[in-house]
Amino acid sequence: MTPEVRIIGINGLPEVTPGSDLAGLLAEAARAQGTPLQEGDVVVITQKVVSKTEGRLVDLSTITPSPLAERWAAEQGRPASLIELALRESRRVSRMDRGVLLTETHHGFYCVNAGVDTSNVPGDGMATLLPQDPDGSARTVRKGLRKATGHDVAVIITDSWGRPWREGITNFAIGAAGIGVLRDYRGMEDPYGHELHASVVAVVDELASAAELVMGKLDRVPAAIVRGYEYSSTTGTMQDLVRPAEQDLYR
Amino acid sequence: MTPEVRIIGINGLPEVTPGSDLAGLLAEAARAQGTPLQEGDVVVITQKVVSKTEGRLVDLSTITPSPLAERWAAEQGRPASLIELALRESRRVSRMDRGVLLTETHHGFYCVNAGVDTSNVPGDGMATLLPQDPDGSARTVRKGLRKATGHDVAVIITDSWGRPWREGITNFAIGAAGIGVLRDYRGMEDPYGHELHASVVAVVDELASAAELVMGKLDRVPAAIVRGYEYSSTTGTMQDLVRPAEQDLYR
């Protein structure tokens, strides 16, 4: 049988605000465009709409930068309030060099400005923060989608980050519910009978990247359905994907 | 309009050997399973079949390890000939620690053992090397596919690598033809009228990840068609994606 996966963008989501029923709106938008959710779909959602729904919005003018943020931002020509917010969202600074502030977030993720971002936010001088508990956010949406549609789906929340060594950003998973974040092939045999060793695949990151193909950056497509992908529906937590410090050669 | 992208695995490719007409075999396999290639498709192919076709296969028993490879391999319980081959395929060692040899390949890629790999190779004690010129390999397949089908398609060659900070491997692009490897949104405006700053997307890596969803590690699905994705058909080279040393904070 020919394996096939469909990536379907969810269009026409209205502007969300704190307290919006994101699951209900997504279910309705998917139905309205003729692609209602089905059992076993994976629903991939950008962090931006989740953060807006959860009120993770900050007016930069209300932030008083620390002396460190003030000084470094001035040196690098960056907005001090944004740098201050990024430091507040971090548990460790990994690099602060050549105009780039790259930190470890409270969740254990590594990204520029701790995921604090001013694009795709209505109004001026507003920034979004990453959800406080992205796995919890994913569980809430998953529960809401079950209520709205009667179907069990997996939910992945994503953000776009740079990587060492390679130009360009790609989509990464930051929260997951209803799906195992890693697929483990270790101990299995390849078609030639050799045991596979280094094959634990970060499937949620691959699903995040796949979804970006229909999302773009300019269009109002903040979510996508991945249909036809078989996944393990065990409880997922992004913490399974965070590499322990002592095993990481590039902190 | 609902944006939709289809990821279709190409099944039933026969075992390839040095000199096989990979493009012809892929075109035929796609046709045989009822999903013939179409104009504008992106064809994503794993490094493994490309390397086999190009004869990038090495019998590990023919390799004499250097003293460094010998000593480190013994300490870490790794095969010395594999470590030696990995060093030969590298232009710089980035990390050699806790059992992991991570180098910069001659192409400028960062991966474990410089991409030298013993899985999914027929016979015992055989390893594949990455293609010498993956962009060239992609161009050759693209040309062959045009000849076999009459259609212009883009071609991406992939390998699976680990990443700093995150557990699990994902698929990355190592060669490209007929597609711009980066999509640049800088200077464009988001739906709220704010200029986008940090938005250059490594689309070939996202396409590589998407293709992995139908490839798996155990099934004989060494290639996939991505259909419905609009891309810039300018000449691509993976070198556009290799970050210059002086701009990289994590070498």
Per-chain topology:
Two copies of one chain form a homodimer.
Chain A (H helix, E strand, L loop, with lengths): L3 E7 L11 H11 L9 E5 H7 L3 E3 L7 H10 L3 H9 L1 E8 L2 E6 L4 E3 L13 E3 L5 H16 L4 E10 L2 E12 L5 E2 L15 E2 L1 H13 L7 E5 L24
Parallel strand pairs in A: 2-8
Antiparallel strand pairs in A: 1-12, 2-12, 3-7, 4-5, 5-6, 8-9, 10-11
Helix pairs in contact in A: 1-5, 3-4
In short:
The first copy, chain A, is an alpha+beta fold and 251 residues long. Chain A folds into 2 domains: 6-56 and 131-242, 60s Ribosomal Protein L30, Chain: A; 58-126, CofE-like domain (CofE-like fold). In chain A, 26% of the residues lie in helices and 26% in strands.
Describe the protein in words.
Two copies of one chain form a homodimer. The first copy, chain A, is 26% helix and 26% strand. In chain A, the strands form four sheets. Chain A has a five-stranded mixed β-sheet. The first copy, chain A, is built from six helices and twelve strands. The radius of gyration of chain A is 19 Å and the shape is globular. With 251 residues, chain A is of the alpha+beta class. Chain A has helices at residues 22-32, 47-53, 67-76, 80-88, 134-149, 203-215; strands at residues 4-10, 42-46, 57-59, 90-97, 100-105, 110-112, 126-128, 154-163, 166-177, 183-184, 200-201, 223-227. In chain A, a hairpin with a 4-residue loop joins strand 5 (100-105) and strand 6 (110-112). Chain A folds into two domains: 6-56 and 131-242, CofE-like (60s Ribosomal Protein L30, Chain: A), CATH 3.30.1330.100; 58-126, CofE-like domain (CofE-like fold, Alpha-Beta Complex). The first copy, chain A, starts with a strand and ends in a 24-residue tail after the last strand. Chains A and B meet through strand 1, strand 8, strand 9, strand 11 and helix 6 of A and strand 1, strand 8, strand 9, strand 11 and helix 6 of B. Strand 1 (4-10) of chain A pairs antiparallel with strand 1 (4-10) of chain B.
